[in-house]
Write a structure and sequence with these properties.
Layout: H1 11-23, H2 28-48, H3 80-93
Helix pairs in contact: 1-2
């Protein structure tokens, strides 16, 4: 078991901890252990409920449209097959389906 020393704990806090310990019929040490154990348990629950990270600020070139949404930086890039399908779809929209891309045209 680990041992922790807490320095510079003010007297008022120590007295309140003693009163809590007496109310719960614990020693001061047992009360502090319970408080620490429960606060860490609560912290791990809170961490799992946190929202995803915020997208970092973007450095946009002057011609970029600031209103156009971007994928968050933590999204994984599409697989090769999905990327090929996306390119071919765009080519089709532009009426350039004769330039369709296939997997054998790309490097591994």
């Amino acid at each position: 078991m680990a041992t922790i020393s807490i320095r510079n704990l003010d007297d008022e806090t120590k007295d309140r901890l003693r009163m809590l310990a007496a109310r719960h019929r614990h020693s001061l040490e047992a009360e502090v252990r319970d408080i620490l154990r429960n606060s860490v348990k609560d912290a791990s629950t809170l961490a799992s409920e946190m929202p995803p990270p915020v997208e970092p600020p973007r450095d946009l070139p002057p011609s970029a449209d600031p209103e156009k949404p971007r994928a968050p930086y933590w999204e994984t890039p599409p697989s090769k097959d999905v990327a090929i399908a996306m390119v071919n779809l765009e080519l089709e929209k532009l009426g350039m389906s004769q330039f369709a891309v296939s997997a054998d045209m790309l490097p591994d």
